[in-house]
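I had to read the description of the data format several times before I understood it. Each protein is reduced to its one-letter sequence and a matching series of backbone shape codes. The format is easy to grasp once an entry is in front of the reader. For illustration, here is how one protein appears when written out as sequence plus structure tokens:
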Amino acid sequence: KRLNNHTIDGNKQRRVKPPNSSRQAPFSPALPPQNASRCLDLEKPLSSLSFSPSRDRFVVGGRDILRIIKITEWQTLEEVENLRGSSKQNLSTTVTDIKWHPKDEEKLISGATNGSIVFWNLNFRDGRTTKREIIEQAHERTVSRVCWHPTDRNLALTCAQDGILKLWDVRSNLHQATTTFKPNSSSVRDCQFSPFYSNYFSAGFDNGTLQVWDIRNPHQSARQISAHNQLVNCLDWHPTQSALLASGGRDRYLRIWDLNQKTNNDQPLHNIQTIAPLHRIQWWKCTDTFFNKQHQQYKTRAHHHSNTNVLSESGSNSVSSKDRDRENSKDDGGSTIGTSGESGEEYYIASCSQLVDVRIHIWNVKRPGIPIFTIGGHKDVPTSFSFWANAISSASSSSATTSTPAS
């Protein structure tokens, strides 16, 4: 045993020469350790986060903040632009949700608490602020979600707590929606375009129903499912299987639906019970060859290896990043991970909660009893998250962090 440079061997004690420190590799502060956490303190509560198409920047927004953050070459976080310009309060630029255009590096859309929506164009600047087109009172109540069309770069969809969804065309008069959908519900909590069928989108409602709409028919939904016992908070389409749609509700259930099922018994394909009401969910495509090989080789091991990074925002008004830091990773018994896509790809689904639980969980839908990964680091519940390559980014009412799960 070595104690204070001494070796204890029975009753004898001899001096041990300390290691030659000159041979140790010099520490480089520009290269973060693999188990390090990066944090950017923004000093204001955050509600939403979205990546640019190039994935080298992301925008964070909240009631009093709207800024662009750059991920540097060394995966550190650097604030590069304040989109609000001045600190003067403007209810139209308070952010409940924001999305970067999936194909255009210069366009964003945000929703506000007063029912306004804002189209941002980063190409045009007046020296202080970014050019923005504000549609006052686009909705009568708080905007819940905004989203861009995945293939038509000119279309955007918004939903609000007034129970109405609106389709906008940036080429036309933005002060009037192209199409208005009235589902006869008290509030719409989430909406998402299908990545496979350009005319369809899904929506989740306060009455627990999940609906699929055709933009060519604004008078009646194409499909309706009684998905949850309480309001539906979040939705996400599967990246490769066009008929699979995930929903998360206040009833603490995460459910996977097969829309090809013709029966009307509203039975989910997979059912995951969580410990708190769900706030956001997102599918994750795992293409980490090393992780998949390790999972197949060590089916009985309690920990996995991965290079997944996590970017998250939490209740401490900061943005932080963690590399190779999985707090909990559990074996799924050797079953297929998530829902399979193309060869060599596996799909998980990640979730964060509205209350109590400050962690992000990643689930194997075929083994719903316990999450396979659990990622912490927040002091408050995450309010938004997004995957960055083999990474996950999340936001909460007080901070943002970036983490990478590992063994």
